[in-house]
Structures are given as structure tokens and as C-alpha cells.
Amino acid sequence: MAGVDWTRMGMGPIPATEKALKKAGLAMEEIEVIELNEAFAAQALYVIQEGGWDASKVNLNGGAVALGHPLGSSGARIVGTLINVMEQHDYHTGLATMCIGSGQGIATIIKRP
């Protein structure tokens, strides 16, 4: 979990991801798939660009714009979708991340055998 100035709401996934990668001892290039919560389209595009993420790895089944943004359970939806995509494509390292109101962000790295 990390935060940015509240006026930059939606950008929290960038520092949260950097923190999670450091803690896991991984580089972004080692992440095979990313589930990024799309609070809104411009926010997701900004995070992908500023984070230097490979857009071809992000939201393979569509993000919140396509699948929905269920308030109170978005995190569960994102992690569940990530695990399903990892199993479908035989990926072993994935990233689930989302912005949280007032400038916060959270990122979780999922590893499967």
C-alpha cells in the first residue's frame, strides 16, 4: 500500500507496485499479467504509461470498464480475475493493483506453482 497527494487520486498504483516489487525482490519485467482497476479510462492509461507497464499484459479479459466496478468488492473481483487469467494462460507471476480514494493505492503480487 502506498499513497500520493490526494489531488492525484488514481495514481496510487504506481508507488504501490514499486513497493510490492521491491518487497518481493522482482522486476516489472518478471510480471506476466496485470489486473489494474480502471477507476476511469484516463486513470488506467496514465498508470500504464507513467508506470512503464507493458500494456499487452494489462486486463487481458477487460477491466472495470468491461467487467464492472463493484464498490466494496472490487479488490476481490480483481484478484479473482487475475487468478483465473493466470490459470487459463499458465502464468506464474501476476500483479493485482488498484487505486483507492484520496490518493491511496494497493498492489499484490500473486505467485502460483
From TrEMBL:
Assigned keywords, A-Z: Acyltransferase, Transferase
Principal EC category: transferase
SUPFAM superfamilies linked: Thiolase-like
Source lineage: unclassified sequences, metagenomes, ecological metagenomes
EC annotation from Swiss-Prot or TrEMBL: 2.3.1.16, 2.3.1.9
MF term (GO), any: acetyl-CoA C-acetyltransferase activity
Organism whose genome encodes this protein: hydrothermal vent metagenome
Protein name according to UniProt: 3-ketoacyl-CoA thiolase @ Acetyl-CoA acetyltransferase
Any one GO BP annotation for this protein: phenylacetate catabolic process
Pfam families with a match to the protein in the record: Thiolase_C
Chain ranges of the Thiolase C-terminal domain: 2-112
InterPro entries recorded: Thiolase-like, Thiolase-like_sf_Thiolase, Thiolase_AS, Thiolase_C, Thiolase_CS
